[in-house]
Amino acid sequence: MPRLFFPLLLALLTFGALAPKAFSPLAPGSASAHAVYVFAYSASDQICSESYFSRKNRVQGGRVSLLSPNGTLLESGVTDGEGTFCFKSPDVAGDLIVAVEAGEGHRGEFILRASERSDSPSASFSPASPSPAPAETVEAGPAAAGPPAFSPQDARALQNFIRAELRDQLKPIVRALAEAENDQSPTLRNVVGGLGWIAGLLGLIFWRLGRRRPSPPPSRD
Amino acid sequence: MHISEGILSPPVLVAGAALSLAGLAIGIKSIKEEDVPKAAILSAVFFTASLIHVNIGPSSAHLILSGLIGLIARWAAFPIVFFGLLLQGVLFGFGGLSTLGVNTFTMAAPAALFGFLARRAVNSPNMALASAAGLFCGAVPVLVSGILVAFSLYLSGDAFATVGYVIVAANLPVVVIEGLVAMFLVQFLRKVRPDLLRPTLLVAREAPLA
After folding, report:
1. What is the ipTM metric for this complex?
2. At the N or C end, where does chain A have fewer CB atoms within 10 A?
3. Which residue from B31, B185, B26, B180 is spatially nearest to B113, judged by alpha carbons?
4. Angle between helix B10-30 and helix B77-87 axes, rounded to 10 deg
5. What is the pTM of this model?
6. Side-chain half-sphere CA neighbours of A85 within 13 A
7. The domain spanning residue B123 has which CATH number?
8. A209 compared with A12, residue with greater pLDDT
């Protein structure tokens, strides 16, 4: 029995570590003690960040900074009770870094790629307009029955309206994608993988020790 | 207890890494061949323990079990904690690679020190003294680790008093639980595997076990 002590302890710990995940309703609130996870997404003319310690435990009152890739501080703020803070879109194109400091030495970062930004001031008006314009004329050709022709201003206004509407509608999806992409909370795979690493290192050490003496003496005593 | 990347100033990071390196050297030397599996299992225990959350009162924290590791492994707590932290950093995103040195030191040093100091007390024929030593070695290293974390944050520019208070307060339930766990562990091991508590590391070379 005593030989089983450590394996049992380990099994118990692994179970304890995973049980709250398996029976999540039984485990209200979770740790605030190891890592801060951050994700950010752009919505209309804002960049919103959300930060959390665990699914149910948001970073409240954390210091959020919006940084350019070279580390200059663009804007900063403090998270609300839901761990959320929205910046007004900066006049800077390209990648952005959102960093959250939650105190007690906890900090998290999220890189918002330029390709994932729909807020950049340059993108919101002119550059996209040439492409829909030809499409419109093509469509207008066959359907000659008589929809009134759009003036370029109308088309531009309509386009902006649709774009704004789409952004609002897509906001939950963009948010969910950003959240999923940044979900680093430990899973069963991570835990088992880590234990496997330890077992592997143990094997490596024994392999080395075994090679050091070519003919192992009978070690039973 | 895990300090993230990008918070500590470079001198603190370097100092932490140097101290941990020294501890690692002593610790790795102290592990005898037959103790390697024990060390690996303790590393696995440390690795998984941090996923167990303790939610008592307004704040919550996670188990560390460093005191328990120090009791059994003494200076070997350094390599044990180091590998546990390395895997937690890579797989879970706890702490970070640049802060690995500081984090190893803050968690392993108090554990190793108290485990080393209590090596005779836990083996004393007086069970009450041994239990008290177990309780002390389980609880106090967590507290000291919290203070070390606060101190390294202070050296990097945070206000020591507030951070220290928050960290210690958040970990008080953990301190109590780990103290009790270590106490029961000492009592249990003395009954079933007293050899695990004997000072096998460092000291054992001069005085082999019966």
Report:
1. 0.72
2. C
3. B26
4. 120
5. 0.71
6. 24
7. 1.10.1760.20
8. A209
**Closest CA–CA distance from residue B29 to any residue of chain A (Å):** 13
Structure tokens, A92:
């800077």
- The verdict on A205 touching B (C-beta cutoff 8 Å) is yes
Q: What is the dihedral of CA A136, A137, A141, A147, to 10 degrees?
A: 60
**Stretch 51-80 of chain A: residues touching chain B, C-beta under 8 Å:** 57
- One CATH from 3.40.190.10, 3.30.1330.30, 2.60.40.10, 3.30.230.10 for A34-120+158-196: 2.60.40.10
CB contact under 8 A, B41 and A209: no
Distance CA B152, CA B9 (A): 9
Structure-token match 């665990």, residue found: A54
- Confidence (pLDDT) at B59: 56
> Could you tell me the sign of the dihedral formed by the alpha carbons of A45, A49, A55, A60, in that order?
negative
Tokens of B152: 């390294």
Q: Structure tokens of B92?
A: 């879970």
pLDDT in tens, B73-98: 889 999 999 999 999 888 887 888 88
Alpha carbon distance B115, B109 (integer Å): 10
How distant, in Å, are the alpha carbons of A25, A53, B29 from that of B79?
A: 37, 28, 10
Please choose, from the candidates B154, B158, B64, B153, the residue with its C-alpha nearest in 3D space to the C-alpha of residue B109.
Answer: B64
Question: Tokens at residue B74, please?
Answer: 């003494």
Cα B144 to Cα A138, B148, B184, distances in angstroms: 74, 6, 21
